[in-house]
What we know:
Layout: H1 2-8, H2 14-19, E1 37-39, E2 45-50, E3 55-60, E4 72-76, E5 83-88, E6 93-97, E7 100-106, E8 109-112, E9 135-144, E10 151-161, E11 172-178, E12 186-191, E13 197-199, E14 223-229, E15 232-239, E16 245-249, E17 255-259, E18 262-267, E19 273-275, E20 288-289, E21 292-293
Antiparallel strand pairs: 1-2, 2-3, 4-5, 5-6, 6-7, 7-8, 9-10, 10-11, 11-12, 12-13, 14-15, 15-16, 17-18, 18-19, 20-21
Amino acid sequence: KTYVDAQVDTADTLSEILAIGNTSGANDILMADNQKVSFGAAPDFSIYHNATSNANIITSLLDRQLQITTNNLYVGNQAASETMITAVADGAVSLYHNNIEKLTTTTNGIYVKQDNGTPYINLRRDDSTIAAADDIGYINFEGDDPSDGTFNTGARILAQAEGNWSADHYISSLIFQTRATCANLATVLTLASNKLATFAGDVTIDAGASSTLNIYKDDAGNGKLSFYNDSTQQVFLLHDSAENFYIHAGSGSAMILSTNGATTLTLDTSNNATFEGDITLDDDLNFSTNGFAD
């Protein structure tokens, strides 16, 4: 303090103080490397240049909050020729990559932007030992609990490894989960790596008056709709590559056709066909038994 008092002497303005020992003639405060400008008694805040790391450091100490207040924030490169971050009061916050806007907040959420290309979002698990049943990443859909304001997950889309990952071997499933009341999340649909889609419950197709279920196949392949009891296939409908259509009931299963809730035709396991009503034919009826026909 004595030294400073002796240097400033009778100077009582900032410009006079800055002029003392300032050979540049500018009103600058010049600090040597590693010399800090500190604020607060503790101190609580400091600014300095670290000569070892060649980094400029702003430090808020003692867990103090660091506030930057402005209605229009701009963060750019050193030459101020590229934008990195912008933020506007009552408006959007935007992140840039190589001076191109990529992610921007909106009133209802965010949007991801890609000029002249396909925008995408990567969820990356940085792990070289991903094993079967490991979660690779997921997206949660959350809302407020009206009783205490906590956030709770109502639904989730989850990517999960089906086996151990290795070079060129990244098998995984996409799993859709929902929640009923206060229960845990439960899987409702699994899309597996072998292209199988497994629903955990009933499937309803509702498109008004024209609901349709289409099963497409390659010309050389089969189209098949199967019904299982646990893991055992009981009944299937098959359209084969020869354009034949089959209705097949498994071993020990009868096939019953009904209308208006009443049985009209039963095909039993002994290959007998029983009709519950009249049979009307518009053409000839041929009977064949052991190779003989009438």
